[in-house]
Specification:
Layout (H helix, E strand, L loop, with lengths): L2 H12 L3 E5 L2 E4 H17 L7 E4 L5 H12 L3 E4 L6 H11 L3 E4 L1 H13 L4 E4 L9 E2 H6 L16 E7 L7 E6 H14 L7 E4 L6 H14 L2 E4 L5 H10 L4 E4 L1 H13 L11 E4 L6 H11 L4 E6 L3 E5 L11 E5 L3 E6 L12 E7 L5 E2 L3 H6 L1 E2 L2 E10 L7 E6 L4 E3 L2 E3 L1 H8 L5 E11 L3 E10 L8 H9 L10 E4 L13 H8 L4
Parallel strand pairs: 1-11, 3-4, 3-5, 5-6, 6-7, 10-11, 10-12, 12-13, 13-14, 26-27
Antiparallel strand pairs: 1-2, 8-9, 9-19, 14-15, 15-16, 16-22, 17-18, 18-21, 20-21, 21-22, 23-24, 25-26
Helix pairs in contact: 1-2, 1-8, 2-3, 4-5, 7-8, 9-10, 10-11
């Protein structure tokens, strides 16, 4: 089944019940369904055909939701993009995906105008423009569009619904192709494991462009017939207040959010009433043991940690029964997902032994967009190689613990950062000879991005702040170094391989 078709059935079932309350404006399930119908007609009128890629770079707003569901309704493929991406990054995603249509807002359009003019096969629609830009105006196009009376839903289970870009070993992002079946199977597995119901009230404080906020939270809540209280931006004090006042039952966050909520808890004169809360869920980055313990001590709730990745959606989860949750464990494989822990050549290791996590199931992606070699490298005998290292409990053989990543991926604040991309930017600065980027444990962000640079010979002195500002001109803010250290030359072994472990040991406790 088409994912949008399935969610439309739910919307018609729940009709006038509030589905999303976004910044105090309420949208019923019927409202959502009708808006998706209207946006679907708009996309058809703009010539979107099955398989066409439609890129969306918008801040968190209702148009993002309507557009995403409309794109997959008409058989298109959604390309959700971080609103913080700079023009250089945006050009790569739009070009690599071959997107034919791009939705953005006036400010981002103005910043990216130079690169958009080069993409002659791409049409741009601006969400908050009244003819002030060269792009089409979303509001004007909607006004002259009649909502569809009937919907065809040309895409089916094995067709690609979304392309989400993830970091790759070359530093260039890879587009993970997620099918309707991938998304639906994962959504239904989480519905079962987390016991979602139409009585739930989810506080949605996550970004919408991210797998966590778009697939797990938004689509999961719609599928359950639950109500979402949606905040445009995360604020810890407001989150506690909303949980109390709106009688929320669910919150999904990343460890950085929980860290800030715990800090805010200590400052609150009056603690919020949590009697309606069922579960606090954490993902997108490892939850530290002291965070797990501190949150339980403060609130009485054990955070439910789960494990997922862009290519697979959710893989494993702790149980809904708080008594069986353990710190540092991401829980058990979801229904329909099989997990193995193996040696590098694919042989199973014994429970308790560390190896690479591999999996298979209906949640596993179709492959990387236009990268057949990378796709083949990611599978062995039908099992997807996650690159994550972990072990399964020696007592029951199923509970999963993660201990690190085989790749150099940094996860900061729930976002994936690949060092090579940042190193390439740094080494483009005339005063820098070479650079190494490492992730350092950080209580707030999980990991913080740190750069170690060797200056170019005879280069003028340069301040760390200047290097950070240089990065911010080329990269999204979360990718930019939080600290910069200078070194005469980077440490390498006899074979010339960079020894990042030496840098981690040296700079890991600074800052």
């Amino acid at each position: 089944m088409n994912l949008a078709q399935k969610l439309s059935h739910v919307c018609r079932e729940y009709g006038n019940k509030p589905a999303i309350i976004f910044e105090n404006t309420s949208y019923t399930f019927d409202d959502v369904d009708k808006q998706v119908q209207h946006y679907s007609a708009l996309l058809s009128g703009l010539g979107v055909s099955p398989g066409d890629r439609v890129a969306i770079q918008l801040a968190k707003r209702m148009e993002f939701i309507f557009l995403h569901l409309a794109v997959i309704s008409v058989g298109g493929i959604t390309l959700p993009l971080n609103p913080d991406y700079k023009p250089d990054e945006l050009e790569y995603f739009l070009t690599d995906s071959g997107s034919s249509l791009f939705f953005t807002d006036k400010d981002r359009f103005s910043r990216a105008k130079g690169i958009l003019q080069k993409l002659t096969d791409l049409r741009t629609v601006v969400a908050d423009s009244a003819g002030e830009t060269d792009g089409l105006s979303l509001s004007s196009e909607l006004e002259k569009t009649e909502p569809q009376v009937t919907r065809q839903y040309p895409s089916e289970g094995d067709d690609v619904a979304v392309i989400c870009y993830t970091s790759g070993t070359t530093g260039k992002s890879k587009g993970a192709m997620l099918t309707h079946k991938n998304l639906i199977s994962n959504m239904m597995a989480l519905h079962e494991v987390w016991e979602w119901s139409d009585r739930d009230v989810l506080l949605h404080a996550l970004p919408l462009f991210h797998v966590h906020g778009l697939f797990v939270a938004l689509q999961g809540a719609l599928n359950a017939g639950a109500t979402m209280i949606m905040h445009e931006k995360f604020d810890p004090a407001r989150s506690w207040r909303t949980i109390d006042e709106s009688k929320c039952t669910l919150l999904m966050g990343v460890p950085t959010m929980y860290q800030r909520m715990m800090n805010e808890w200590d400052r609150l004169e009056k603690k919020p009433d949590l009697k309606t809360m069922r579960v606090f869920i954490s993902g997108s980055a490892p939850l530290l043991e002291n965070q797990f313990n501190r949150f339980e001590k403060q609130t009485g709730f054990r955070i439910l940690e789960r494990y997922g990745m862009t290519e697979t959606g959710m893989i494993a989860s702790n149980t809904i029964d708080p008594a069986s949750r353990k710190a540092k464990s991401v829980g058990y494989p979801l229904p329909g997902t099989e997990i193995r822990v193996t040696t590098a050549d694919g042989k199973d290791v014994a429970p308790g032994e560390i190896g690479e996590v591999r999996l298979r199931g209906d949640n596993v992606f179709k492959g990387y967009w236009e990268m057949p070699e990378k796709t083949r490298e990611s599978f062995q005998d039908g099992w997807f190689k996650t690159g994550d290292l972990g072990y399964q409990d020696h007592m029951d053989g199923k509970r999963l613990y993660l201990v690190g990543r085989g790749k150099e991926l940094i996860i900061t604040g729930g976002y994936n950062v690949y060092p090579k991309e940042i190193e390439d930017v740094l080494e483009g600065h005339q005063a820098i000879n070479e650079a190494a980027v490492i992730g350092i444990p950080d209580e707030d962000f999980g990991e913080r991005v740190v750069a170690v640079v060797a200056p170019a010979q005879n280069a003028p002195d340069i301040a760390p702040d200047e290097i950070v500002l240089f990065c911010k001109d080329h990269l999204a803010g979360y990718k930019c170094p939080k600290e910069v250290f200078f070194i005469d030359q980077l440490p390498r072994n006899a074979m010339g391989k960079l020894q990042k472990n030496v840098l981690t040991e040296k700079y890991g406790k600074k800052g």
